[in-house]
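Incident log entry.

Two folding requests arrived from the same account within the same minute. Monitoring flagged them as a possible duplicate submission, but the sequences differ. Recording both here for audit purposes.

Request one:
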Amino acid sequence: MNLFKIIKDIEKVDAEVYDRLDSRRGMFKSVGKWGGRIAAASVPFMLGGMLKKAYGQTSNNSAIIEILNYALTLEYLENEFYAMGLAASGLIPADRKAIFQQIGKHEAAHVTFLTTAIQSLQGTPATKPTFDFTADGTYSDVFSNYQTFLALSQAFEDTGVRAYKGQAGNLISNNDVLTAALQIHSVEARHAAMVRRLRAQKGWINGKDSGGTVDAIYTGEDNTTQGGVNLTTLGYSAAAISQAFDEPLTKDQVLPVASLFIKS
């Protein structure tokens, strides 16, 4: 879950979102103070309270709730995936289980935050969809074969990092938000690199090589033009360029990937 992405989406239907929450700088100072004073489990409720105070009496509720429910649905997918993987007997090797337990805790916290935020606005959280992580049998052994599980984990993590990058341009007008967002983005990228390493893959994406996951996730990763310059003309190979620059994914590119695993 990307808090800054959610707030930016809300800004599309309410340009005054930052003023309602407090000043932009003040908002992040408040969040920082919470981190040192209260239990992490309380943060979702505090943030939900902020949204309730900001939007409790406005006409934007339905649009904001729709945005939050969209994010919640995606978080349901990731949370369910890791929960099922951790529950599958003998799937994850003992010396790797702590890694996925921690990732699972992150996803569970995201679901809690979004659910609380929606309820604080008197909205109804979206019902958790029925997921098919086999994608109609394409990954039939996802919870019995560790390598297949890792492949889908890589797919979800790489998608998340590229989707986040796809929103960076929307944050560039505000230095405070962009700085905080990039700090979170770098940690998410490390998660993706960790999963790739667990698969004995390079920590970075190489061209459109999906590594046996979902081809659509790597659309555009073979781009050799950066800043309007085709870097192959400067003597760099296409592979080296791809590895050195990560490409963004738009929302329209992300949705078809998610739909592969949402049954109803």
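Request two (distinct sequence, not a duplicate):
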Amino acid sequence: MATHPRPAPETLPVTLADVQAAHGRISDQIVRTPTFISKTLSELTGATVYLKFENLQFTAAYKERGALNTLLQLPAGTSGVIAASAGNHAQGLAYHANRLGIPATIVMPTNTPTVKVTQTEGHGATVVLFGDTFDAAYAHARELEAECGLTFVHPFDDIRVIAGQGTVAIEMLQDVPSIDTFLTPIGGGGLISGMAVVAAAADHPVEVIGVEAELFPSMYNRINGTDMPCAGDTLAEGIAVKEPGGITSGMVKALVDDIVLVSERNLERAVSLLLQIEKTVVEGAGAAGLAALLQHPERFAGKTVGVVLCGGNIDTRLLANVLLRDLARSGRLARLRIRLQDQPGALFNVARIFDAERVNIIEIYHQRVFTTLPAKGLITDVECETRDRAHLDRLMGALRAGGYEVSTVELA
């Protein structure tokens, strides 16, 4: 990955001076989000874990930084800005453009969730729905840029945006000078490019590690010459980018030490842990850094790691599903499939065992027709709540001791 010594700063398209200038430009107009240690996550992972709470920005994501830095450098009399985005870049650009009195147009795919359209319009932007994919929306935005004389603001492949995003690292090292590793999500590469510029100029070695979802290893492919597929329904849609930027790819190749990939299961676990332990809501992309610590603990053991919680915009129903799935995987929520005889008292006798083991029954589902059992047989699924995996195991042992066939209905 990166070669050492690192390239001379003046050979890079974004320098430390650019990032410092951006910080001076934007710092009084964004939230100075805190960087706090997580003692519990440190004990869990074996690293000293510091979290940068960028989900506390007004639009709940770090994207405001790059958008604002770009807006503040536009020439006087700019007729308006335009972007293609269904995510945090749209809201960050719309919010700050509205504050500065600059008209903003955001092109979104037609299948963008209504809540994101409404939020972006709520920040004063004109939303144009076009095409079924981001690529189609992007192409249309570039057409409107030319037709209407607007200024296009790219979500990541722009030196002003990269410099703005790099201000995250300036604040983290100011607050916690002992950080020796940045663990940063990669989508298009704007955030990690800016942070890596700051890390390269630090007064002590700071390793920069990127994180991508296993389903979308686009930057990993670009840097390592691999050809893994980029497709699928990832929880981390904020970093589900098929083609990373040209500027950012060059900067990542020069400055980033490694890229690790994380599974959907660890992304889900990270979102759940951050809510349970830190009491903070983080979207899938924002939880990618913690997911890497969970999946590759030996890689970061003993390090002082700065993790950016880069966004908190997650659909509430999706968040509920993630939390329930985590309860199921930990054994605190389970669905047991039990074979009964279809006769009076059968369910009552099973329920007595649940009562004796002090297990709460949430739902009961009977299956009489669509089953391979004889006509008098009955499959019953019982959804229940236990204290932990050991408690669930005791319940299943008691059911089997009572003569019942029982199995768990497992998650994917």
